[in-house]
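Treating backbone geometry as a discrete language has practical consequences that deserve illustration. Part of our work consisted of pairing the sequence of a single chain with a tokenised description of its backbone. We regard such an encoding as a compact summary of how the chain folds. The amino acid sequence and the backbone structure tokens for this protein are reproduced below.
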Amino acid sequence: MDSEKILAIIQSLLDKQLTQDITLLQICKILHSNVAHYDWVGFYILDESKKNLILGSYVGKPTEHVNISVGKGVCGQVAESGSTMIVQDVSKMDNYIACSLDVQSEIVVPVIKNGRFVAEIDIDSHAFAPFTERDEDLLKTIAAKISTLF
């Protein structure tokens, strides 16, 4: 499915004004089922008091990484920098937290509200180097749309 259709479905979902948990889980399901190289799709939400990320809604294999310190791994680095990270080959990255041996690449996009990092979209792929500018643009648009949920 192309990006415009995915965004239209997500906008329709957001228009329903469901709870944050339900909305984020539905977005995970939409992305996971409509983009072939999105093998694990989830959200990490910032717990400002503890300076760590807490796993929220996700679709894919269970992970033991339910809490990630800011600065640690790709997710923690995105939380620290507030910038998108694309890792096309996770085996070449220092400070990488492996969720599964199947993961070959990862993209993490921050969710920013009022200029502050509040959460992130994390996507793992079992394919090597699948992420393109189209993925980044799609996920950044979704991140901007869902910032109102936080």
Notes: The longest helix spans residues 20-34.
